[in-house]
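Module 6 notes. Inverse folding takes a fixed backbone as the condition and produces residue identities as the prediction. Think of it as a translation problem where the source language is geometry and the target language is the twenty amino acids. Below is one complete input and output pair. Work through it position by position during the lab.
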């Protein structure tokens, strides 16, 4: 097999298409525009996990990123669920400013969001937790997310311990260390790949309760 060398990586590029993003066609509300693109991604079989987004947080000026799943989007913002003791949650406690990125490469699109994350209410987390499959609920109890783990066996035995405590079919309560965050956006940028690297970039910035729309250089 040919070596995957420096030049091979440097020469990886593709041409982008004709379909564009124009000021006359976009929604004046970025949440509606986002919903429309999320729908396109979700309905297109070449996009895997259309609701996967990269969440970046900052600790001591050091950014770090990981993928989480979008579970709701409303005028208030973008919701995901996680362990409240995890590294990302600790980071948010210290610095609420976060970035979200939806990389829909097969559609030559990305959406970049800047905003602030805050915990949603216990009632809202309870409501979502109740809809999860039993095995995922047990997983939430078993994982001390982001903490060191001595072996996979330790994780599996913790899972079995909670599976025995809350057998399938019984009501599994939400662990208090597990719940949702809402990211309230202040900036939402839509990127559409175009020919000759003349990509479309449209950024919505929140000023008061209004969204200002600005095209920016690619
Ligand atoms: C496709 C995908 C979806 C994921 N969804 C979630 C999620 O919704 N919530 C979550 O806590 N972790 C999710 N993860 C795992 C995170 O990326 C991460 O490993 C974990 O949350 C621990 O991150 P932290 O140590 O930075 O807190 C997902 C990973 C992938 C690859």
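Target side of the pair, the amino acids:
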């Amino acid at each position: 097999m040919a070596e995957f060398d420096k030049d091979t990586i440097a020469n990886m590029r593709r041409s982008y298409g004709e379909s564009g993003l124009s000021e006359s066609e976009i929604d004046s509300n970025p949440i509606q525009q986002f919903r429309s693109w999320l729908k396109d991604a979700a309905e297109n079989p070449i996009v895997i996990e259309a609701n996967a987004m990269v969440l970046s947080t900052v600790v001591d000026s050091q950014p770090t990123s990981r993928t989480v799943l979008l579970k709701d989007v409303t005028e208030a913002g973008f919701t995901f669920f996680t362990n409240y003791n995890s590294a990302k949650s600790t980071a948010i406690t210290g610095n609420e400013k976060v970035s979200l990125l939806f990389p829909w490469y097969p559609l030559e699109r990305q959406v970049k969001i800047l905003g602030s994350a805050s915990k949603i209410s216990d009632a809202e987390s309870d409501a979502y937790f109740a809809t999860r499959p039993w095995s995922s609920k047990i997983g939430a109890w078993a994982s001390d997310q982001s903490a060191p783990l001595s072996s996979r066996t330790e994780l599996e035995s913790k899972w079995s311990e909670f599976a025995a405590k809350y057998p399938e079919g019984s009501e599994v309560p939400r662990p208090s260390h597990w719940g949702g965050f809402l990211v309230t956006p202040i900036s939402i940028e839509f990127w559409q790949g175009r020919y000759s690297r003349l990509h479309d970039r449209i950024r919505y910035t929140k000023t008061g309760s209004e969204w200002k729309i600005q095209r920016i250089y690619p």
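Reference fact for the lab report: The mean pLDDT is 95.
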